[in-house]
From TrEMBL:
EC number: 2.7.13.3
Species for this entry: Hymenobacter negativus
Alphabetic keyword roster: Coiled coil, Kinase, Membrane, Phosphoprotein, Transferase, Transmembrane, Transmembrane helix
Gene Ontology MF terms in the entry: kinase activity
Catalytic reaction equation(s): ATP + protein L-histidine = ADP + protein N-phospho-L-histidine
Enzyme category, top tier: transferase
Stretches that traverse the bilayer: 21-41, 53-70, 77-96, 108-127
Protein name, per record: histidine kinase
Keyword Phosphoprotein assigned: yes
Ranges in a coiled coil: 134-187
Domain of life according to the entry: Bacteria
Domain called Histidine kinase: residue spans: 206-447
Length: 449
């Protein structure tokens, strides 16, 4: 019975897991009983106290086990439950006589005490059982929480790994994008320079023709002036000098020098304009005669195209507002815009002329208007017009309606940026297929003047 009680207690308190050494001791609790039984049989001992002593030993062993497991709440409760029972057994052993009988005067007390002790033991056993179930639930809950925590930690580690991989990928992408952006900016700068050089090439042909006129005048007046000087020297060498003729010759020389100075200045102005067009814009605004600027680029664009095609002729219609005052603009940038628009206009009328349309007369117009608070410049041609399907795209970079090799698609895009961003104005296009195209530039005078 003692062995059965200890085995049940060991299982109930999970002694093998909580205290393996104590479990080994409990497994051999039957050994003292066998030894004691052998002694009783060997020496023929008849005293009933032998059994009581073994029970006392068994109870003390149980108490020792419960004390060793006191950190476990059900074990503490069982310890509290069995302590009165052990005390009862000690009192019983003390009060029994030599034959193992309880004196009758103590029967009632001991019976009452035994009943109370049994109720006490049973009550606290139920409490201990309830505590064990509660602890098992708590332990199960802790295990589930620990499992969930391990799962969360595993997921966190996986997420951290994924985030690290994604971070590396994004970093690499960012570096690639930065390298691509740098390359694009370099390419953009090269394309802008290429477009500027292309427009400079268009300008050069016109300049060569325009500069020829003042140079011819300079050469002609220089030759005439040389003849006048020779005639003056001959007259001065005569004994009978004609002072009136000498005065006329000097007056003609003076007039020729004035003409030479004027046409030399014109040639210098054309060269200066070419240099301004070719150099990088400083962004500084200077007071500019827009009428003179527009007229100059109209003729340069026209003669530039004629240098490529001697058979091409067109009517030029300049219409400039005489009330327009000098306006502070970035002249080289605005000159690039006008040259680009005029080149496109002459290209459009030439393309229509080459179709052989009967009665067609190529015409390009440029006009300026003082609108009070705004300056307006219009460039119009009577070419074939821009189709409605592509009209919204013409200011997009790299979009061009010209055949491959004849346009970069940057001219109108750069022109749009120069007007809208550089001068705070607008650049719009109005076109009708079969009738022509008109570009309208406008910018506030109070921002640029």
């Amino acid at each position: 019975m003692a062995y059965g009680i200890t085995r049940a207690m060991s299982k109930f308190l999970d002694v093998p897991r909580r205290n393996p050494l104590l479990e080994k001791v409990l497994r051999f609790i039957w050994v003292p009983a066998v030894v004691l039984l052998g002694i009783v049989l060997l020496f023929e001992i008849k005293s009933p106290l032998v059994g009581d002593f073994y029970w006392l030993f068994a109870l003390l062993t149980i108490l020792g086990t419960l004390v060793a497991l006191r950190h476990y709440r059900p074990a503490r409760t069982l310890l509290f439950a069995t302590a009165p029972f052990v005390l009862y057994k000690l009192v019983e052993m003390v009060l029994e006589d030599g034959s193992g009988e309880m004196p009758k005067r103590f029967d009632a007390f001991m019976d009452s005490t035994q009943g109370f002790v049994m109720i006490w033991v049973i009550t606290f056993m139920f409490i201990s059982r309830s505590q064990k179930k509660q602890l098992e639930k708590e332990e199960l809950l802790r295990e589930e929480e620990a499992k969930a925590k391990r799962l969360i930690e595993a997921q966190n580690m996986q997420l951290e790994h994924l985030v690290a991989e994604r971070t590396v990928a994004l970093t690499n992408q960012a570096q690639e994008l930065q390298a691509t952006l740098t390359e694009l900016r370099t390419t953009q700068a090269q394309l802008v320079q290429s477009e500027k050089m292309a427009s400079l090439g268009e300008l050069t042909a016109g300049i060569a023709h325009e500069i020829q006129n003042p140079l011819n005048f300079v050469n002609n007046f220089a030759d005439v002036s040389a003849e006048l000087l020779t005639e003056l020297e001959e007259e001065q060498a005569k004994p009978d000098r004609d002072l009136e003729l000498e005065a006329e010759l000097l007056a003609d020389l003076k007039q020729n020098l004035i003409k030479i100075s004027q046409h030399g200045g014109r040639a210098a102005s054309i060269v200066r304009g070419m240099l301004e067009h070719s150099r990088t814009s400083s962004g500084e605004r200077t007071a500019t005669n827009l009428n003179a600027l527009a007229d100059e680029y109209l003729r340069l664009a026209y003669h530039g195209l004629r240098a490529k095609d001697k058979t091409f002729n067109a009517t030029l219609n300049p219409d400039f507002d005489p009330s327009l005052p000098p306006v502070a603009v970035i002249s080289q940038d605005l000159g690039r815009v006008l040259l680009n628009l005029l080149n496109n206009a002459f290209y459009a009328v030439r393309q229509r002329q080459q179709t052989g349309e009967a009665g067609y007369a190529p015409t390009v117009s440029i006009s300026t208007r003082n609108l009070g608070k705004e300056v307006e410049i219009r460039v119009r041609d009577n070419g074939a017009g821009i189709p409605a399907a592509v009209r919204a795209k013409i200011f997009q970079p790299f979009f061009t309606t010209k055949p491959t090799g004849e346009g970069t698609g940057l001219g109108l895009s750069l022109s749009y940026d120069i007007i809208t961003q550089g001068h705070g104005g607008t650049l719009v296009v109005e076109s009708e297929e079969g009738k022509g195209t008109e570009f309208v530039i406008s910018f506030p005078i109070n921002q640029v003047g």
